[in-house]
Write a structure and sequence with these properties.
3 domains; 10-stranded mixed β-sheet; 23 strands; binds pyridoxal-5'-phosphate; glycosyltransferase; 1,4-alpha-oligoglucan phosphorylase activity; Alpha-1,4 glucan phosphorylase; Glycg_phsphrylas
Length: 808
Amino acid sequence: MKPSEHLEEIENFKSAYIKKIEEVSGEYLSESSLLNQYEALAELVMDKIASQWAKTRSQYDEIPHKRVYLFSIEFLIGRLLKSYVNSLDMEETVKTAMAELGLDYETILSQETDPGLGNGGLGRLMACFLESSATLGLPFHGNGIHYKHGLFEQKIINGEQVEVADNWLRHGYPFEIRKPNEAVIVKFYGNLHSEKINGVLTFVYEDYEPILAVPYDIPLKGYHNNTVNSLRLWSAEPIEEFDLPSFNEGQFLDAVRHKSEAEAITQILYPNDNKFDGKQLRLKQEYFFVCAGLKRMITRFKRYNNDCLDEFADKICIHINDTHPALCGPEMMRIFMDEEGLSWDDAWKITVNSLTFTNHTVLPEALEKWPVDMMKFLLPRIYMIIEEINRQFQEELRSKSGLNELQINSLSIIQDGQINMANLAIVCCHSVNGVAELHSKILKEETFNGYYKLFPERFHSVTNGVTPRRFLINSNTGLRDLITESIGTDWLNNLFDLEKLMTFKNDAPFFDRFNRIKLDNKIHLANYINAHNHISVNPESIFDIQVKRIHEYKRQLLNALQILHLYNHLKANPHIEIVPRTFIFAGKAAQGYYFAKEVIKLINAIANLVNNDKDIRDQIKVVFLANFNVTLGEIIYPAANISEQISTAGKEASGTGNMKFMMNGAITLGTMDGANIEIHEAVGDNNILTFGLSSDEVSHFEKHGGYSSVQIYENDHRIQKIMHQLIDGTFGHLASFQSVYDSLLLYNDTYFVLKDFDSYATAQHHINELFKDKNKWFEMSLSNVAYSGLFSSDRAILEYQKNIWKTL
Ligand SMILES: *Cc1c(COP(=O)(O)O)cnc(C)c1O
């Protein structure tokens, strides 16, 4: 753009904005509130996106590429305004226009709420996939739930987590469009009987409870292109708003009850991460969005395909994110048979050929199992279909597989009065994939080995990725600009291009700028810490960061215990000088997860002890930041020196936080778990620190025993000391961490914290030495940025297209 055109664009933007302010607030700019200023900007940007959105839709209908519909019970999208502005390539224009109007762009952006419609990695991955596919220009749409309350807001009060309801829609949400004319009815409960209608055996479903599903669409704009895809979130409403005067009292109460029972379905997001919660309401949620999403999609498909379903599986791929949407299988069978009149065999062919499935965990407590009685009561027709799918599957095994009854039973979808949703998904989908090499291997060799032997061709692996737009380009603008000045702009469309950065590994001016950018990002985070935690931290210290959901398998406890040990070491040796270190934690614990909440308490107790001890002379600081979410992540990831990825090997399916840190130049301190293994392979031995048991060793101990945490305790005086401190009043008379102590010593340390302690502490000590060598550290950090190309979700999407959806 010529400078004169740019000036004109800024002037146009300013006048449009001034007009918009008046529209949204009925006031002049000078009188308007910050919230109105944000709303006006949001609406102006939505206006720009709307025409591209409509155009993308009509182009998809004209050129019938195979489309992918993604079903997920979580989408953790983060704030959108900045993404939209940058994807429209309007960052400079908007920033300058705002400044010239006397407004602070960053402050306006901070008015946006962060929709917490997910718990962690699983929901965030879906948001990255939506962003990448829009950027790649692919027809790809999300279906999920319009939770009225997303994940709770976390406050830390007296060192403990306190949950506050998340009312993210309080001020409305400017990026969604309600589509009441596309609402559909979802049916629950009721009775089923069969009848011959016109000579055909038909299932008649009666006395069911109908609920209205109303969609809200959110546009997902590609970066620097014209593609705008949709995320469709379904909201539950009563079928008819009641008309007050015509009701007698009894009818009125019934109507009120119906209204609140209907709305309950999409009131809250279940707050568990990697843990199954078998509440009936959750099952209702799962069927609700599956039924509504499929119904709309099939209606639209028929409209553009002469009412004919023959080519459905050639033109549509339905991808289920973990097993929460696994009722897609039986629901498609129901629609195809009961509503479209297809035979079982024809319906089954289309169903299996269009469905694909990603598994997200091997933790047994996370695998979904619904009681048969609950399914039968809530969804009688769906249950009947599941039973028939299972019966036919078992018949086929009996006739073809050569398996004995015991083996056939072990593969049953229904076992011990429960419906195993992973088994249902594997039987109904023609593709099953894990999310990193190790995880996919464990699925094949352990978790789903019986199925793998039956259908080896169904099993795939796609390592997760993250969008570099959100997690590097838009959130680390200093590094973005340095990269572009150094290697040009090609990397924006092909992240593998970052490898060219290695030519700067001996370049002194580059070295200075690279380090300065990291320091600036650390100062930014230090300011945030000061403002929110009133702790002053040294930006020159090593920022050593673990941010993710609090979970035993992620082992925040190992990190905390090592800090306690380091504190003891410094107390006992008052003249020791270490490189100053700031340990930063953030993450939410599920409300009902007692142990995880104790860990938060312990971290804060250690912080209190360490930060206030004059003997430590500020050599270590410990910070727990409240309310980790995508927005906070965007401040944290760019500021890290060390990325803590220390899960018990074999337990973390992939991790994606590890990739966000790496892209921003942090060095991984990790176990050989999840995608840490691919990170290790990408950067090489010298640019990562690994420690601890391998997944084979962990699984050997789990199967055959041979690990005694007490034995480790008895032979390690460091561990003896920290174990005593948990219960001896070190943290004040009232603060005792007996349950932590017991889990480690009495219950033999399920997650091998004490087993890995020594190797972890050694690695931590090694970091202290490495950081002193500025050149060495720079090369490690640069290598992490340079070799992060593999971890773009663009690469992941291309692999799904090629190997799983067959859309390439
Ligand atoms: C990336 C991300 C996660 C996942 O982090 P892991 O370290 O992979 O567990 C969780 N929550 C938020 C807000 C994220 O952005």
